[in-house]
Amino acid sequence: MVSPPDLLLSCLGLSPEHSRSRPHGLYSPLAKVADPPIPLPASANCIFCNPTRAGGFRIVHEDNSFIAFYDRSPAARVHLLVVPRVHIANVKTLRSRRQGEGKGDGNDDDAKLIKQMHAFGQLAIDIAARELQHDTDKGAGCASIETRAKMRPGQERYADEVGIPGARRFGFHIPPFRSVDHLHLHCLLLPFVSPLKALKYHVTLPSHELGIQHYKGYSWFVQWRQCVDILVHGGKVGVRPC
Ligand SMILES: [Zn+2]
Ligand SMILES: [Zn+2]
Protein backbone atom coordinates (compact mmCIF):
# COMPACT_ATOMS: atom_id res chain seq x y z
CA MET A 1 0.00 0.00 0.00
CA VAL A 2 1.21 3.49 -0.74
CA SER A 3 1.53 5.91 2.15
CA PRO A 4 0.11 9.42 1.76
CA PRO A 5 3.53 11.14 1.64
CA ASP A 6 4.69 8.89 -1.18
CA LEU A 7 1.32 9.16 -2.87
CA LEU A 8 1.71 12.92 -3.05
CA LEU A 9 5.32 13.33 -4.02
CA SER A 10 4.27 14.70 -7.38
CA CYS A 11 2.79 17.72 -5.64
CA LEU A 12 6.28 19.09 -6.10
CA GLY A 13 7.77 20.92 -8.98
CA LEU A 14 10.99 19.60 -7.56
CA SER A 15 12.36 16.13 -7.24
CA PRO A 16 11.48 13.87 -4.30
CA GLU A 17 15.08 14.08 -3.13
CA HIS A 18 14.81 17.85 -3.03
CA SER A 19 11.55 17.76 -1.13
CA ARG A 20 12.88 15.42 1.47
CA SER A 21 15.93 17.55 2.07
CA ARG A 22 13.98 20.73 2.62
CA PRO A 23 15.12 22.47 5.78
CA HIS A 24 12.85 22.14 8.76
CA GLY A 25 11.01 25.28 9.67
CA LEU A 26 7.52 26.62 9.30
CA TYR A 27 6.66 23.78 6.95
CA SER A 28 8.12 20.84 8.80
CA PRO A 29 5.73 17.97 9.47
CA LEU A 30 5.95 18.60 13.20
CA ALA A 31 5.05 22.25 12.79
CA LYS A 32 2.07 21.28 10.66
CA VAL A 33 0.69 19.13 13.43
CA ALA A 34 1.14 21.80 16.07
CA ASP A 35 0.06 24.88 14.16
CA PRO A 36 -3.44 25.82 13.08
CA PRO A 37 -3.94 25.82 9.30
CA ILE A 38 -3.73 29.58 8.86
CA PRO A 39 -2.23 31.34 5.84
CA LEU A 40 1.44 31.96 6.49
CA PRO A 41 3.39 34.89 5.12
CA ALA A 42 5.67 34.41 2.14
CA SER A 43 8.76 32.76 3.45
CA ALA A 44 12.26 31.97 2.36
CA ASN A 45 11.38 28.41 3.30
CA CYS A 46 8.60 28.25 0.71
CA ILE A 47 9.97 26.77 -2.50
CA PHE A 48 6.94 27.92 -4.53
CA CYS A 49 7.11 31.60 -3.57
CA ASN A 50 9.78 32.38 -6.11
CA PRO A 51 10.20 29.56 -8.63
CA THR A 52 12.95 30.33 -11.13
CA ARG A 53 14.67 28.53 -13.98
CA ALA A 54 17.94 28.97 -12.13
CA GLY A 55 16.29 27.24 -9.20
CA GLY A 56 15.57 24.19 -11.35
CA PHE A 57 11.98 24.86 -12.35
CA ARG A 58 10.93 24.21 -15.95
CA ILE A 59 8.76 27.29 -16.35
CA VAL A 60 6.21 27.16 -19.17
CA HIS A 61 4.47 30.49 -18.77
CA GLU A 62 4.35 33.39 -16.32
CA ASP A 63 2.83 36.80 -15.81
CA ASN A 64 2.50 39.28 -12.97
CA SER A 65 0.10 37.06 -11.05
CA PHE A 66 0.91 33.40 -11.80
CA ILE A 67 3.68 31.02 -12.81
CA ALA A 68 3.21 27.65 -14.54
CA PHE A 69 5.93 24.99 -14.50
CA TYR A 70 6.30 21.28 -15.09
CA ASP A 71 5.70 18.85 -12.25
CA ARG A 72 8.86 16.78 -11.96
CA SER A 73 6.92 13.60 -11.30
CA PRO A 74 4.32 13.79 -14.07
CA ALA A 75 1.10 11.87 -13.58
CA ALA A 76 -0.18 12.50 -17.09
CA ARG A 77 1.05 13.17 -20.57
CA VAL A 78 1.41 16.84 -19.60
CA HIS A 79 1.45 17.75 -15.92
CA LEU A 80 1.94 21.36 -14.87
CA LEU A 81 1.55 23.27 -11.63
CA VAL A 82 0.18 26.81 -11.53
CA VAL A 83 1.06 28.87 -8.46
CA PRO A 84 0.07 32.42 -7.54
CA ARG A 85 2.98 34.77 -6.89
CA VAL A 86 1.28 35.78 -3.66
CA HIS A 87 1.72 33.20 -0.92
CA ILE A 88 -1.57 31.48 -0.11
CA ALA A 89 -1.17 28.40 2.05
CA ASN A 90 -3.60 25.89 0.58
CA VAL A 91 -7.09 25.24 -0.70
CA LYS A 92 -8.53 24.88 2.80
CA THR A 93 -7.69 28.49 3.60
CA LEU A 94 -9.77 29.86 0.72
CA ARG A 95 -12.96 31.75 1.49
CA SER A 96 -15.85 32.93 -0.63
CA ARG A 97 -14.78 36.44 0.34
CA ARG A 98 -11.36 36.88 1.84
CA GLN A 99 -11.58 39.44 4.58
CA GLY A 100 -8.91 42.03 5.21
CA GLU A 101 -6.16 39.68 4.19
CA GLY A 102 -3.06 40.60 2.27
CA LYS A 103 -2.67 43.87 0.49
CA GLY A 104 -5.90 43.82 -1.47
CA ASP A 105 -8.99 45.88 -0.75
CA GLY A 106 -10.34 43.24 1.60
CA ASN A 107 -12.80 42.02 -0.99
CA ASP A 108 -10.64 39.57 -2.88
CA ASP A 109 -12.82 36.80 -4.10
CA ASP A 110 -11.06 33.46 -3.88
CA ALA A 111 -13.49 31.86 -6.32
CA LYS A 112 -12.35 34.44 -8.83
CA LEU A 113 -8.73 33.57 -8.04
CA ILE A 114 -9.44 29.90 -8.78
CA LYS A 115 -11.07 30.79 -12.09
CA GLN A 116 -8.04 32.88 -13.01
CA MET A 117 -5.67 30.04 -12.07
CA HIS A 118 -7.71 27.66 -14.20
CA ALA A 119 -7.66 30.00 -17.22
CA PHE A 120 -3.93 30.42 -16.79
CA GLY A 121 -3.51 26.65 -16.55
CA GLN A 122 -5.47 26.14 -19.78
CA LEU A 123 -3.18 28.56 -21.54
CA ALA A 124 -0.07 26.91 -20.08
CA ILE A 125 -1.27 23.47 -21.18
CA ASP A 126 -1.87 24.85 -24.67
CA ILE A 127 1.75 25.99 -24.71
CA ALA A 128 3.10 22.72 -23.32
CA ALA A 129 0.99 20.64 -25.73
CA ARG A 130 2.42 22.55 -28.65
CA GLU A 131 5.85 21.48 -27.46
CA LEU A 132 4.81 17.87 -27.85
CA GLN A 133 5.44 16.75 -31.40
CA HIS A 134 3.36 13.65 -31.75
CA ASP A 135 0.10 14.05 -29.89
CA THR A 136 -2.27 15.05 -32.65
CA ASP A 137 -3.05 11.46 -33.61
CA LYS A 138 -4.25 10.53 -30.15
CA GLY A 139 -7.24 12.80 -29.68
CA ALA A 140 -9.80 10.03 -29.58
CA GLY A 141 -7.80 7.95 -27.14
CA CYS A 142 -7.23 10.62 -24.54
CA ALA A 143 -10.35 10.24 -22.44
CA SER A 144 -9.84 9.83 -18.74
CA ILE A 145 -9.08 6.37 -17.39
CA GLU A 146 -12.09 6.94 -15.18
CA THR A 147 -15.32 6.30 -17.00
CA ARG A 148 -17.86 8.97 -17.71
CA ALA A 149 -20.63 6.43 -17.24
CA LYS A 150 -20.51 6.99 -13.50
CA MET A 151 -21.76 10.53 -13.97
CA ARG A 152 -25.34 11.21 -13.04
CA PRO A 153 -27.38 13.98 -14.66
CA GLY A 154 -26.15 17.34 -13.48
CA GLN A 155 -22.68 16.04 -12.65
CA GLU A 156 -21.19 16.61 -16.08
CA ARG A 157 -20.14 19.96 -14.68
CA TYR A 158 -17.26 18.20 -12.96
CA ALA A 159 -16.23 16.00 -15.86
CA ASP A 160 -12.88 16.41 -17.51
CA GLU A 161 -12.75 19.16 -20.05
CA VAL A 162 -12.39 17.72 -23.48
CA GLY A 163 -10.10 19.82 -25.53
CA ILE A 164 -7.79 19.12 -28.38
CA PRO A 165 -5.97 16.83 -28.32
CA GLY A 166 -7.09 15.31 -24.99
CA ALA A 167 -9.16 15.67 -21.86
CA ARG A 168 -7.86 18.01 -19.21
CA ARG A 169 -8.19 17.93 -15.45
CA PHE A 170 -7.49 20.77 -13.05
CA GLY A 171 -7.58 20.63 -9.27
CA PHE A 172 -5.99 20.82 -5.86
CA HIS A 173 -4.93 18.35 -3.22
CA ILE A 174 -6.59 18.93 0.12
CA PRO A 175 -4.61 19.09 3.38
CA PRO A 176 -3.23 16.94 4.86
CA PHE A 177 -2.87 15.37 1.37
CA ARG A 178 -0.38 17.79 -0.09
CA SER A 179 3.35 18.31 0.17
CA VAL A 180 4.05 22.00 -0.41
CA ASP A 181 2.12 24.56 1.58
CA HIS A 182 1.73 27.09 -1.22
CA LEU A 183 -1.48 26.88 -3.21
CA HIS A 184 -0.78 25.01 -6.46
CA LEU A 185 -3.20 23.97 -9.16
CA HIS A 186 -2.44 20.62 -10.82
CA CYS A 187 -3.04 20.92 -14.58
CA LEU A 188 -3.23 17.55 -16.31
CA LEU A 189 -3.50 16.71 -19.97
CA LEU A 190 -4.71 13.11 -19.98
CA PRO A 191 -4.28 10.21 -20.25
CA PHE A 192 -2.68 9.39 -16.94
CA VAL A 193 0.56 7.48 -17.01
CA SER A 194 -0.75 4.77 -14.64
CA PRO A 195 -3.86 3.83 -12.64
CA LEU A 196 -2.01 4.67 -9.42
CA LYS A 197 -1.27 8.17 -10.66
CA ALA A 198 -4.88 8.52 -11.75
CA LEU A 199 -5.97 7.65 -8.21
CA LYS A 200 -4.03 10.60 -6.84
CA TYR A 201 -6.11 12.95 -8.96
CA HIS A 202 -9.43 11.19 -8.66
CA VAL A 203 -12.49 13.45 -8.82
CA THR A 204 -15.07 12.33 -6.26
CA LEU A 205 -18.58 13.26 -7.21
CA PRO A 206 -21.12 14.39 -4.65
CA SER A 207 -23.89 12.18 -3.42
CA HIS A 208 -27.23 13.62 -2.48
CA GLU A 209 -28.44 10.81 -0.29
CA LEU A 210 -29.00 13.03 2.71
CA GLY A 211 -30.71 15.71 0.70
CA ILE A 212 -27.83 18.10 1.40
CA GLN A 213 -26.28 19.93 -1.49
CA HIS A 214 -22.66 18.89 -1.82
CA TYR A 215 -20.26 19.56 -4.63
CA LYS A 216 -17.87 16.70 -3.90
CA GLY A 217 -17.68 13.57 -1.76
CA TYR A 218 -14.89 12.39 0.58
CA SER A 219 -11.68 13.06 -1.32
CA TRP A 220 -8.07 14.16 -1.20
CA PHE A 221 -8.44 16.04 -4.48
CA VAL A 222 -10.90 18.76 -5.47
CA GLN A 223 -11.55 19.55 -9.10
CA TRP A 224 -11.31 23.28 -9.83
CA ARG A 225 -14.99 23.82 -10.58
CA GLN A 226 -16.02 21.91 -7.48
CA CYS A 227 -13.77 24.31 -5.60
CA VAL A 228 -15.43 27.34 -7.20
CA ASP A 229 -18.92 26.01 -6.49
CA ILE A 230 -18.08 25.34 -2.85
CA LEU A 231 -16.67 28.83 -2.39
CA VAL A 232 -19.43 30.77 -4.13
CA HIS A 233 -21.97 28.97 -1.98
CA GLY A 234 -20.18 30.11 1.14
CA GLY A 235 -18.49 26.81 1.97
CA LYS A 236 -14.93 25.76 2.71
CA VAL A 237 -13.01 23.01 0.93
CA GLY A 238 -12.14 20.00 3.06
CA VAL A 239 -11.60 16.26 2.84
CA ARG A 240 -15.18 15.59 3.95
CA PRO A 241 -18.10 16.02 1.57
CA CYS A 242 -18.68 19.71 1.01
ZN1 LIG B 1 -0.78 18.61 -5.05
ZN1 LIG C 1 4.87 30.38 -0.87
From TrEMBL:
Entry GO MF terms: hydrolase activity; nucleotide binding
Keyword list, A-Z: Hydrolase, Nucleotide-binding
Pfam annotation, one family: DcpS_C
Keyword Nucleotide-binding: yes
Protein origin, superkingdom: Eukaryota
Family annotation (PANTHER family): ADENOSINE 5'-MONOPHOSPHORAMIDASE HINT3, APRATAXIN-RELATED
Protein name: HIT domain-containing protein
Gene source species: Tilletiaria anomala (strain ATCC 24038 / CBS 436.72 / UBC 951)
